[in-house]
Amino acid sequence: MKILHLSDLHIGKMIGSYSLLEDQAYCLNQILTISKEEKIDLVLIAGDIFDTAIPSAEAMQLYSSFIEALVFKLKVKVVAISGNHDSYKRLDVNREFFKKSSYYIIGDYKGEVLSFEDKYGKVNIYPIPYLSLSKARVSFDKDFQSFTDLYSYLLKDIDYSGRNILLTHCYASENTYEDKEEETEGEKPLSIGGNDAMDASLFKNFDYVALGHLHRKHFVLEPKIRYSGTFMKYSFSEKGKKSVSLIDFTDKVEISEIEISPLRDFVTIEDYFDNILAMDKRLDYVQVILLDDYPIENAMAKLKVVFPNAVNIRYKDFSVFNKDHDFDLDIENLSTLELFKEFYKFKMKNPMSEKEIEIFKKVIE
């Protein structure tokens, strides 16, 4: 059985004021080509299908067209779960209807097992969509203190005989007590406060674990416990080339990566403004870090002549706007209100009005 592991599609995502739908469609078409050329039997999507809980009609149409091409044109089965960006209730609408077309969408956890057969026998898929700890405590009437507790409970009765794949959306780690790896922008925390990480050793009995949530492709503990990563970059903090994971599952598991080419890349340029304006025009998404020691007038408008998809500009030296001013505050002896009044006067060139003072007092309270 040939399986394609995808995760964190984030369909409908924006970067600055730019929609990424055209870029996403470009990459999804490559995945359809891969599915056809590699004769893929099953596609696994490990959560965060959409970027928001209420996606736009355009985002839903793009995803729907992708799924329809897989299941109707290419006759590929698809198993997809919700992530923490998704609305599990919305994804569960028509789930029974979709099953009849070999599209298995699991928004809310049901404890179900999906089995598919090839000449080597059954492959059992255990789909565990994203579950918040608070929802899990209510659903199972248990006081889970961590995601390790939750997954220990969810996996406790599994029979690991035969061939088994776990499909889930979580932060799996080798050590749940150390600082987690560097996050990339767009990875929304799984919980508010506390540690999101859970013990990946719980997954060792599976033949393959298709993980979603982290955007960087990598494995945890061993190659079979794997994050495929996003199929395209979604922030300037993401480095390297993007890919999807191909699993050739016979009586053993062979894993490879297939690169996905972006329509537009994410590029950071650090230089002096005049040097940047002299560069060749490019359509990539660009963030600029200026080395100039004075503010540039209408910098973004000028920049867009060379880089039409420029996203943001910032200065390496944050003090460039205040170099001609002497701003000294007595932080030790002034109250919060007095400090803000002085700051307001410095920035606005006028003192706060009585009405503004009253508003700020309420904010402080």
Global Rg: 25 Å
- Strand elements, count: 19
| Spatial strand arrangement across the major sheet | 6-5-4-1-15-16
End-to-end span in angstroms?
62 Å
- Uncertain stretches: none
Total helical elements: 10
The multimeric state of the shown protein is single chain
Shape by Cα distribution? globular
Order of helices and strands: EEEHEHEHHEEEHHEEEEEEEEEHEHEHH
Largest sheet composition: 6 strands, mixed
Strand content: 25-35%
How would you summarize this macromolecular structure in one to three sentences?
With about 375 residues, the protein is of the alpha/beta class. It has helices at about 20-35, 55-75, 90, 95-100, 135-140, 145-155, 275, 300-305, 335-350, 355-365, and strands at about 1-5, 15, 20, 40-45, 75-80, 105, 115-120, 120-130, 165-170, 170-175, 195-200, 210, 220, 220-225, 240-250, 255-260, 265-270, 285-290, 310-315. It contains ten helices and 19 strands.
Plain-language structure description:
By secondary structure, the protein is of the alpha/beta class. 26% of the residues lie in helices and 27% in strands. The chain has 10 helices and 19 strands. It has helices at residues 21-37, 57-73, 88-91, 95-99, 133-140, 147-154, 273-277, 299-306, 336-348, 354-364, and strands at residues 2-6, 14-15, 18-19, 42-46, 77-81, 103-106, 114-118, 121-128, 163-169, 171-173, 197-199, 208-212, 218-220, 222-227, 242-249, 253-260, 266-271, 285-290, 310-315. The strands form 5 sheets. A 6-stranded mixed β-sheet has the order 6-5-4-1-15-16. Strands 7-8-9-12-14-13 form a 6-stranded mixed β-sheet, with no helix packed on it. Strand 18 (285-290), helix 8 and strand 19 (310-315) form a beta-alpha-beta unit. It is globular, with a radius of gyration of 25 Å. The model has no long low-confidence stretch (mean pLDDT 89).
